[in-house]
Amino acid sequence: MADKPTFPPTQRIGILVFDGFEPIDVFGFVEAFAIARFLGTGYASPPPYPFETVLIASKIAKVKSANGPSVAPDLDLSQALQRSLDLLMVPGGGGTWPLLDETSDPKSVAMLVDWMRARDKKVRIMASVCTGAAVLAKCGLDVRASDSTRGGSVGLIGGIFEFRFVPHIRPRNPSVC
């Protein structure tokens, strides 16, 4: 009888969702992680799988994307603080700017900033896609904008932190656009 194969621990991936997130920024990640399998196993193989992905929002309620479907988050911010995550990814999208607007909802912005800083101390990788870099920057987290956003967003993000934008450079960190 053959030995049962052993696999490394499942990596837990959290993706922050908010009204106005860009669907491809979220669903592209979700799909890539969802179809991954350990070497020597197939798509129909039973667990364990290399990745577990959860969607996180400020509260457990439907979240509308920028130009597509709504999603139901798996966890709210307080529940997510109790869970172990290996990676937290912040997508971009038109909803990034209202999410960070302290003039309209300073309490929510402060709560998000505090939560992101707390998560940053607990995750191995903090990543962003496109304008999601502005969320990391707003929280004072280490971001290289030349690696994390596109030219059309440079001016908008530049009001939050200083950076230099160098187009056509391959990303050196987990932030992509």
Strand order of the largest sheet: 5-2-1-6-7
Q: What structural class do helix, strand and pairing data support?
A: alpha/beta
The CATH architecture of the domain at 11-128 can be given as 3-Layer(aba) Sandwich
Strand percent estimate = 15-25%
Describe the structure.
The protein is α/β, with parallel strands linked by helices and 177 residues long. It has a domain at 11-128: 3-Layer(aba) Sandwich (Rossmann fold). The protein contains six helices and seven strands, in the order βαββββαβααβαα. The chain has helices spanning 23-35, 77-82, 96-99, 106-120, 133-138, 154-158, and strands spanning 11-16, 51-57, 63-64, 70-71, 75-76, 87-90, 125-128. The longest helix is centred in the middle third of the chain and has 15 residues, at 106-120.
Index terms:
5-stranded parallel beta sheet; alpha/beta; single chain; disordered C terminus; 7 strands; 177 residues; Rossmann fold; elongated; 28% helix
Ordered list of secondary-structure elements with their pairings:
Layout: E1 11-16, H1 23-35, E2 51-57, E3 63-64, E4 70-71, E5 75-76, H2 77-82, E6 87-90, H3 96-99, H4 106-120, E7 125-128, H5 133-138, H6 154-158
